[in-house]
Amino acid sequence: MNQHRIAVYPGSFDPITLGHLDIITRGLEIFERLIVAVANNDEKTPLFNIDERLELVRQTVGSNPRLEVDTFNGLLIDYIRRRKAHIILRGLRAVTDFEYEYQIAQTNHQLDKNTETLFLMTSLPYAFLSSSVVKEVASHGGNVDSFVPPPVQEALRKKFAARSDSRDNDIVRI
Ligand code: ADP
Q1: How open is the CA angle 38-82-49, to the nearest 5 degrees?
Q2: What's 3-169's CATH class?
Q3: DSSP assigned state of 145
Q4: In DSSP terms, which residues pair with 121 in a beta bridge?
Q5: HSE of 101 in the Cβ direction (CA atoms, 13 Å)?
Q6: pLDDT digits over 52-69, tens only?
Q7: What is the mean pLDDT of residues 79-102?
Q8: Where are the domains of the chain?
Q9: Residues 49, 26: Cα–Cα separation, whole Å
Q10: Which residues' Cβ are closer than 6 Å to ligand 1?
Q11: Number of Cβ atoms within 10 Å of the Cβ of 27
Q12: Protein residue with its CA nearest to atom 8 in ligand 1
């Protein structure tokens, strides 16, 4: 298979949102194979651990022979090389994404001249949607059903219910 037909879509996916799903769906229209690569990054403290994030991505995307869900540690560029891919797919929302994405894309290209980062512009309904906004709203009991797929809605409800239970226990103990 032509190497340029394989793209890797990396991210934290903490958790996957409808904005991510939109990029995945559109990416599949362009590339023959798409690898969604969930970063297992020790420096960040995610709400969902790596197994939970992977499972939520898997449940959301369903099964598609052209789509793979995987995880990686360390440098993205090393993972890209291991997978023999040359394209990094990223999404761009507002202008605020640009500077960060530009820096990362330049760095990755510097590290490996064979690797190109391609960007898809967000679809308008998801232009202001991010995993952090979803977590913020859900943590205060807000409804996030129009932002995330059903498995994530359920997982967020459980996660924050468990958290408020443990807070209640703290209060009882005091
Ligand atoms: P990271 O920690 O690598 O930024 P994210 O999971 O936040 O991981 O995002 C992964 C990629 O998906 C990034 O390129 C980000 O810009 C893109 N993305 C996130 N939300 C949206 C959205 N609503 N529309 C389009 N792209 C998005």
Answers
A1: 20
A2: alpha beta
A3: T
A4: 92
A5: 19
A6: 999 999 999 999 999 999
A7: 94
A8: 3-169
A9: 27
A10: 11-13, 17, 19-20, 23, 90-91, 93, 97, 122, 126, 129-131
A11: 22
A12: 11
